[in-house]
Zinc ABC transporter substrate-binding protein (Propioniciclava tarda), 327 residues
Amino acid sequence: MIPNKEFRLNPTSRLCLAALCATALVGCGSAGQAPSPSAAPVAIATTTPLGSIVSDITSCAGAKSTTLMKPGVDPHDFALASDQMAALTRAKLVVANGLGLEGGLATALKNVKADGGRVYEVAPDVFPLKYSDIEAAHAGETAAEHAAHTHGEFDPHVALDAGRMAQAAANIGKQLTEATGDATFTECGAKVEAQLKATDASVREKLAIIPPARRILITDHEAFNYFAKAYGFEIAGVVIPGGATDAEPSSADIAKLVATVKAEKVPAVFSNIAVSPKMVQAVAQEAGTDVRVVPLFVDSVGAPGSGAETYSSMMLANADAIAGALT
């Protein structure tokens, strides 16, 4: 048993102990409270390419943003968690791609609008392409065959054109200014726009080494229409026609695509790094030639350490991969 002793503190020790207790009380008092409004993200982006751009704009303005999806997530299949829905209602602005890319978020975004929240969809404001107007018949299919594929009127995959995303950055900055009353966001949107125009120029420079006869793309799904139009490529075939990634091509579709690979002497077919490459691999194998399967970042930036963690680095990585495969 420890004997009872009187314990005395000198004046300096008493002051230190009082300060320590006050700090502890403040910490305990705030542990169960929600963060202050100023600490909450001013904007929430849906996809990682948009998240990268929005983060650049908000960081420039001294604010915070967050992204719903993680790197490597296919936006066509994304489902919202309950805590994410609550976060959407607190943000000053929700930035979405739109045109059906985030199919699983349609109801949630509609509810945010109904509750008085602001949702800005990027794709409709950057001159979206109508599927009916897109050239290249996708491995020789007729207009009726192409129209039969399941997708909306417009192609939502605008992120693979850095020029369009530069315009999107300027638009997002203006939308943030409207949502917050802070003109700094418009200024920062213009700065990010200039940066993405430089990215666009770098992509063009990297792709310039590909000769015209080899500017032919065969991809796993129909996501490269904007890329092809912006950077001078022809889409000779698509393994899974339509904008979705979860469809299954028929054996006739595969056979037609294999014939295209052989006829065009295509050295590589390109797959979305975020989805299974098995269908693309099957096409390459059945072609019976030295056809490479080259993964690209399509609807998502890369994971940490991939070298494609931001929108700009994603586009540059894709340009390097395509140039390396086709030259």
